[in-house]
Amino acid sequence: MNRLLKRLREHKDELLLVLKRPEVPLHTNGSERDIRGHVKKRKVSGSTRSEEGRRCRDTFMSLKNTCRKLGMSFWKYLQERINGGPFVPLAELINQR
């Protein structure tokens, strides 16, 4: 019991952060859900052949997840970026929320 109380005291600031910042989730389910698709794809297809391939795959997966969270079409965003069309940078959209 004393060890548990000691650990709680040591992590008090982290545990109470949600009271100061209610947008901080109480769990890590969102993070785990974000990587689930990546892990499934890796299990099925194996790994990439090169470091560059891994970086490309990771970048596209990250963009796809970010677009999904922002309620945007990943394919439309990608098309606008490739074709030089008008687009708002994802970082700007995230900061607006």
Structural commentary:
This is Transposase IS66 central domain-containing protein. InterPro entries: Transposase-related, Transposase_IS66_central. This protein has 97 residues and is mostly helical. The longest helix is centred in the middle third of the chain and has 19 residues. The model has no long low-confidence stretch (mean pLDDT 83).
Specify the structural class.
mainly alpha
Mean pLDDT: 83
User: What does the main sheet amount to?
Assistant: none
Number of separate strands: 0
Q: Radius of gyration, rounded?
A: 19 Å
* Overall 3D form: flat
Order of helices and strands: HHHHHH
Quote the beta fraction. under 5%
Number of helices: 6
Relative helix content: over 70%
Q: Between the first and last Cα atoms, what is the distance in angstroms?
A: 42 Å
Unreliably modeled segments? none
